[in-house]
Amino acid sequence: MPSFSQVKDSGKVVINADGRVALMQQKYIDSQNGKIKGYRVQIHFGNEKNKAKEIKSKFLTKHNSMRAYDSFESPYFKVRVGDFRTKLEAYKFMKEIAGEFPGAFIVTDNIDLPEL
Questions:
Q1: What are the C-alpha distances in Å from 105 to residues 25, 34, 79, 92?
Q2: Over the stretch 56-74, which tens digit does the pLDDT of each residue have?
Q3: Domains of the chain
Q4: Which one in 22, 28, 43, 107 has a CA-CA gap of 20 to 30 Å to 5?
Q5: Residue 65 φ then ψ, to 5°
Q6: 3-state SS of the chain: helix, strand, coil percent to 5?
Q7: How far apart are CA 60 and CA 66, in angstroms?
Q8: 30 φ, ψ to 5°?
């Protein structure tokens, strides 16, 4: 699919692309339910619901810009944090929180699409 761009006097780039490209992108996003394959850091794994909630709350208190997710897979409660597209990003963050959550480890997960 050919695409062309032109630089106008204002310094902005105008891209003229086939409309089917945007349609294909939207179809892909819709098929993924807003999720893509990526990584998260798991900071808790245990069978006590209250403990999982406590750890999630502790994490969000110090890292309020990061998203935290709790889930239940019988009989265990899990707390996972972040939406990392690469394992390296997840590893860097895991090292940052290693003092607070020494048992943290990286897991593959379906993450939320990053905001543009």
A1: 32, 24, 11, 11
A2: 999 999 999 999 999 999 9
A3: 1-31 (no CATH), 35-112 (3.30.70.1070)
A4: 28
A5: -85, -10
A6: 30, 40, 30
A7: 7
A8: -60, -40
The token pair that represents 73 in the structure block: 């897979």
Considering Cα of 28, then 30, then 34, then 36, what sign does the dihedral take? Answer: negative
Question: Whole-prediction pTM value?
Answer: 0.70
Are 111 and 35 within 8 A, CB to CB?
yes
Give the dihedral sign, CA 34/39/41/42: positive
Helix (H, G, I), strand (E, B) or coil at 57: helix
Which tokens is 81 given? Answer: 């944090």
